Amino acid sequence: MATPSKASSAQFDVREDEEQYTTAVEIMDLLVSAGYFRAKIAGLSAFDKIVGGMVWCIALCAESVDVDLLYSENSTIGQKIALTENIVRVLPRFKCPYALEPHQIQGLDCIHILPVMRWLVKEAIEAKARTGDEVLNHGAFQFRQSGYKLPPKYELASTEDDTPIAENPKRKYHRATALGQLDVAEDVACTLMEYGLAATDVVVLPEVDEDDGHKKEREATLARELKLAELLQAELQDGAPSKATTKNDRMSAKVVNTLIDASTLESISESIGDSAAQYESLVAEKAALDTENANHRKELADEKEKFDRLTADLAELKEKHQKNQEILGKTDAALLESLKSTMTEVTEAKQRYRTYKRHCREAIAALEDEITALEAAEPGDATSIESAESANLHRYEAELLALDEEMNTSSQELFKLKSQLDSNPSQLELVQYQKRFVELYNHMSSKHREIKGIYTMYNTKVDVRDFIRKEIDLLNNIDDLKEKAVKNEYKESFVKNLDSKIKAIEANLNKLSSKYESLAKNKDRLYDELQYAVDKQRVYNKSVAEFQQECMINEQLREEIARLSAT
């Protein structure tokens, strides 16, 4: 019966040998060690395991890529081809140091896939460790914020940078309603005392440039405020226990009025006015300093951006210089020397042409001056000078024509060399040709297998039909001769007929045996041809790789020639 084609079952033609098999086993072990346990499933194909492992590693890296990498086991061959192309397109964005082509993944070229897989597994393990630590630390932080206690192993891991959670403040005293309206300093001091804190815990003396008189006055004012705060705190601490049950921890206005006199309030208000004026000046000065600081930061950011851009340009120039040196090292010395000599000749011819044109302009200017001078001279002298100048002009024209011919010859040689270089296909065209040839080969192979299966099924059905017809004829003969075979006179004829049938069967058996032997020989011959074709395919793949390298070198040489021509 006909076998299903590879196009319908989404399979690729894979080159199988011992080295490829060993490398594929190493890739599966690498994926399993990284945590991709689907590689252990025996029912999956090697293509599904490898492509699934690549997609899994890229997803673990948690990078943003504008490419669809949806992997499914039931994908068609077109979807799998698109997936391999997307994987190859994503790898350079991850700065993968190894090159890989889609047809190498489709053909399971494990020798080229192995270094890329090692790099992807390494990046995936690092990303897993990095994101795992972040998730663990975030979870531990959330648990501690909620007041839960973590197990000992997580507590030990999270106590390095752990900071204690501050408790919410609790009110110990309540302010009396008879106090009236207080200024800012008194209000802050009383509020701190209500929560059991001293005013000295948060007071920071500002650094202000003042003269000695203002400084002494400010120090006296601050001393009075601190003394007042201490007295209030002592009164609260002494009077609170006895009044807690009757007045709900409140302080009377009488106590506060006895502690604060009018002079203190007046001095505090004056100091507050001075502090407000100083505060406004400090705010204006701070705004000016912030503006200047922002300008400096902006200039610093611009300079840093320029420095980074110059550094990147320098690195790019160094890389280009190194690549150019490598290309020049790999190029044929004779061809390079011929190109250099041709470019030098063209440059020299152009330079000579420019120099000659400049000299001609200078000579024309001098001649015009002489003509102007001669026009003012006698008629006889002007005729002789004009003949001499016309001879010089003819000589200059002949030299100009010779230089033009030399420059045209050099330009023709340069055009021929450019045409020879342009006649070779580019690397992109070669890759497209190779991709289309691979797709065409896979399609033809699948169609060939389908047609071969159809022919085999047809031949089998024809043989079965012939055998059934012979069996029917034999049974009909037996049925016709059954009554006659009982008689004695027909026994001898029956035996002769049976002998003839046995001989026919033996003849058919001999014929089938010879056909079997011919088929076995044909199978051995086809196997030898298959081995020869496999060897040819290996040589072809190697030649294609070398040809691609030479094409890349050719493209680089063309770019170098174009750059030299532009300069």
Automatic annotation (TrEMBL):
Stretches assigned to the CCDC93 coiled-coil domain: 268-559
InterPro entries membership: CCDC93 (IPR039116), CCDC93_CC (IPR019159), CCDC93_N (IPR048747)
Native species: Panagrellus redivivus (Microworm)
Keywords: Coiled coil
Keyword Cell inner membrane: no
Protein name: Coiled-coil domain-containing protein 93
Family affiliation: Belongs to the CCDC93 family.
Residue ranges of every copy of the CCDC93 N-terminal domain listed in the record: 19-125
